[in-house]
């Protein structure tokens, strides 16, 4: 494809394409789930995810739809601990927890620093806690929080793609070297990290999408992550729908996801997962949705 729009993809343009947000309750998460994940122990173990209702991420990436379930005002002290407490009451016991907040855990407008100690106390029974963060927010605060936590802290960071022309157009305000430096900082401080990799971001053909997802996995492992999650790019946030309608974006097919997952697992450089949360949005369907999903889930859970 490799054709690009003539206008600048900027915050104002992305914001102008958006629809409305969902109403979220700052005292309750907007979602929670329990699933198995292949862990560092070499087994598939119960992993809970809490989707916190949180302050909108200030970065405004082109493909992001996480803003839909966020607040426009910073959260007050005490909201996040209340949400976690509420979610833990609903969830069955699990060894590992993903505490996802649609943005940056170390953005103090999202998670006030005064809440960190209480959050650490609520999470004391887990073995691992995974939070998400943009490189701009990876700094000494991560180390402070790590030292408060009994579980091991892991940090998930969106690399998205290392395509030199596509990454700047994602409006992520990050270069591959920023990612590398942040992962290096975490690694130096014994904090494991995982990368989110986009499969077929806008402006790429299916073949280019596969090629650049593989290149991005290589880059992420070389930077020092111990895990990569491959996410099929989807529309639905306004900006991506515009690009889709104007020939700049098509979602990837499931064969592409399988190929990239297989490539990543065979590297044996660390764990590699396919995000299977939105499989119904795939552009091809050569088998029933359950069969396709089951095969990807099996690869996720066995790393084979
Ligand atoms: S950094 Fe993450 S949460 Fe923030 S806008 Fe980009 S994709 Fe969305």
Can you give a write-up of this model?
- The chain has a single domain (11-302), classed as Aldolase class I (TIM Barrel, Alpha-Beta Barrel).
- The protein is 35% helix and 19% strand.
- It has ten helices and ten strands.
- Helix 7 (206-223) runs parallel beside helix 9 (254-267) and helix 9 (254-267) runs parallel beside helix 10.
- The two termini are 32 Å apart.
- The mean pLDDT is 95.
- The chain binds iron/sulfur cluster.
- Iron/sulfur cluster is lined by residues 57, 59-61, 64, 66, 102-103, 134, 158, 172.
Task: Name the average pLDDT.
Answer: 95
Total of helices: 10
**Poorly predicted residue ranges:** none
Number of domains: 1
Shape summary: globular
Number of β-strand runs: 10
Helix % is 25-40%
Q: For the record, what CATH class applies?
A: Alpha Beta
Report the CATH superfamily: Aldolase class I
CATH topology label = TIM Barrel
Strand neighbour order, sheet with most strands? 1-2-5-6-7-8-9-10
For the CA atoms, what is the radius of gyration? 18 Å
What fraction strand?
Answer: 15-25%
List SSEs in N-to-C order: HEEEEHEHEHEHHEHEHHEH
- The chain-level structural class is alpha/beta
Can you tag this structure with a few keywords?
304 residues; alpha/beta; two-stranded parallel ribbon; binds iron/sulfur cluster
């Amino acid at each position: 494809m490799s054709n690009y729009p003539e206008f600048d993809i900027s915050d104002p343009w992305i914001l102008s394409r958006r629809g409305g947000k969902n109403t979220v309750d700052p005292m309750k998460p907007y979602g929670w789930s329990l699933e198995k994940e292949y862990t560092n122990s070499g087994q598939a173990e119960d992993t809970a995810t809490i989707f916190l209702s949180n302050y909108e991420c200030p970065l405004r990436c082109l493909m992001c739809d996480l803003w839909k379930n966020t607040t426009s005002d910073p959260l007050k002290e005490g909201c996040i601990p209340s949400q976690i407490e509420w979610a833990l009451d609903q969830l069955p016991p699990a060894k590992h927890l993903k505490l996802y907040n649609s943005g940056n855990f170390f953005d103090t407008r999202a998670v006030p620093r005064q809440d960190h100690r209480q959050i650490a106390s609520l999470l004391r029974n887990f073995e691992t806690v995974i939070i998400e963060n943009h490189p701009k927010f990876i700094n000494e605060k991560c180390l402070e929080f790590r030292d408060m936590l009994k579980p091991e802290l892991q940090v998930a960071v969106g690399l998205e793609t290392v395509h030199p022309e596509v990454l700047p157009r994602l409006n992520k305000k990050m270069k591959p070297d920023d990612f590398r430096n942040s992962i290096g900082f975490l690694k130096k401080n014994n904090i494991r990290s995982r990368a989110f990799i986009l499969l077929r971001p806008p402006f790429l053909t299916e073949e280019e999408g596969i090629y650049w997802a593989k290149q991005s996995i290589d880059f992420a492992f070389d930077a020092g992550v111990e895990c990569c999650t491959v996410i099929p790019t989807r529309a639905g946030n306004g900006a991506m729908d515009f690009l889709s309608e104007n020939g700049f974006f098509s979602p990837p097919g499931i064969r592409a996801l399988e190929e990239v997952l297989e490539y990543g697992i065979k590297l044996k450089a660390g764990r590699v997962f396919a995000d299977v949360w939105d499989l119904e949005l795939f552009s091809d369907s050569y088998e029933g949705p359950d069969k396709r999903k089951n095969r990807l889930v099996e690869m996720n859970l066995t790393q084979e």
